[in-house]
Amino acid sequence: MSFDIPTLDRRSTARANSSASPVQTKPQARAIAHPAAWRSNDSVRTDGAHPARSSRRIESVVREPISLPIVSGLLRACDAFSILAAGLVALMLAAPDLPMDGSYYVALSFFGAVVAGNCLHLAGAYRVEKLRLSNIGWARPVGAWTVAAAITAATVMATGASLEQNWTWLALWFTLGLFLPLLARGALAIRMDYWRKAGRLRRRLAILGAGPGGQMLLRRFLAARSDNDVAIVGLYDDRTGPLPSGWRGHAVRGNCTDLLEDIRRERIDMVVIAAAPGDAGMDEMLAQLRCVAVDICFCPNADYAVKARNGVETIGQVPLMVIERRPLRDWSGIAKEIEDRAFAAMIVVLISPVLAAIALAIRIDSPGPILFKQKRYGRNNQLIEVLKFRSMYHHVRDPNGTQLATRNDPRVTRVGAFIRRTSLDELPQFFNVIRGDMSVVGPRPHALLCKAGGVLYQDAVENYDWRHRIKPGITGWAQVNGWRGETETVEQIQKRVEHDIYYIENWSLLLDVKIIIKTIFCGFTGSKAY
Where are the bilayer-spanning segments (predicted)? Predict the structure, then answer.
């Protein structure tokens, strides 16, 4: 489980970035003071600088971990399919001697699969720790399947059928239904051990707080290192006083602002806050972490139990209170990804003649490229290149969005006026969806220097970055509720962000369908589309 990453001087990187571009991607988060004093025998810097920054090297490729809830869910589906298939195979083998019609045994197989699934769940056969080759535990699935088969046999008798005449089918079904799921479990356990050794099951975890609480938490994770399911990225702390270079081989990599940057640049799945109850700045710390897509946890001895909206989770044999889960994780993330890619691919095929016609019209109407590419904020506040049909004259383009388009804007071409009024200029963004930068539905991506009432968006709205926890969308909940177009007042962008956050916290496939339908019938045009 031990994981150590060399470090890069973050201050020199920041200077290089600032000299290369006049655009500041986001304002720096304020440092948060922690009252606890350092208690460490490691080397200490007295200049207030974080020692781990001097040699940082960002890991070039960090693969996404395999989701254990998804693995468990797939095993459930495999069990159900195996039991159903066992019933059908038993039907084919015993068909000549069976007294009932074939549909009866098909229905009985479905019933048995449902009963078996519930019995296996109650027996704890789908618990992730039972899917390890060294701890696979054959007794639970065998016992659960035996109970399910007994219930199915009792159902046969309850329907008035003869148990003796159906004994051949029941025996074959029980044998095959036992063998196939156990075979699948054994194969999965072997694969899980391979994934574990390859680090594919590891969740990358950062500890916020490098005082006694953080050191105690790190010690507990290291004691459970045999699980090999947690990789400690490092420790972070906001204090500006004397700081140790690290503890037990893990570097103190920076403060809360550095942690936010690392979450965006590297793949960090979870942040565990190791702080004493009542520490100053705790609410502000949580607000900063909610700006990025990451799970937020506390030690169980913290007095934030009332905020543990997502219960308690055991990570590396360490129980943690889950304060916030990143949105669209596990099955919801897969459902959203399938929805996006499938819908976008279908739309691109259907509207390809329209795309070609618009491209030709733009080429004839004014000189310049057909597409307009603009840097905008994406998930975790990372910059993405958003595609649009060019609707303005090329020589007056505004790549940073300093001046939003207004009604009767002289920069807009004749063709541009039409495609903006009908929102056809947004159609190339379906290629952004296919590429994985955007979603069909989500918060609209904003340009870098967009303002409301003369104030940058991120300065106008306190929790503006909360909308960046998921991919931006072509359309969104704010847009179909009328909050689109130019933002002349701060209230307009505040309302837009409120709708975006509502969408993130209440996401469902049905909500996406509702937004898509409203977009089709009323979202492409309107008084604010120009």
Answer: 73-96, 102-126, 138-158, 170-194, 342-362
Statement: residue 336 has pLDDT above 90:
yes
Same-domain status, 209 and 340: no
Rounded to whole angstroms, how far apart are CA atoms 129 and 133? 10
Does any domain span residue 26?
Answer: no
**pLDDT the model gives residue 7:** 36
- Give the whole-angstrom CA distance, residue 147 versus residue 154: 11
What does pTM read for this prediction? 0.73
The last residue of a domain, from among 165, 197, 229: 197
Last residue of a domain, one of 295, 326, 357: 326
Is 296 among the domain residues?
A: yes
Distance CA 512, CA 503 (A): 9
Contact at 8 Å (CB) between 310 and 325?
Answer: yes
Rounded mean pLDDT, 160-176: 88
Query: In this structure, are 317 and 337 located in the same domain?
Result: no
Average pLDDT over residues 209-232: 75
Q: What is the model's pLDDT at position 486? A: 75
Q: Could you tell me the residue range of the domain that residue 479 belongs to?
A: 331-523
Is 1 a domain residue?
Answer: no
Cα distance between residue 292 and residue 326, in whole Å: 8
Confidence of residue 127 (pLDDT cuts 50, 70, 90): confident
**Is the separation of the CB atoms in 447 and 491 below 8 Å?**
no
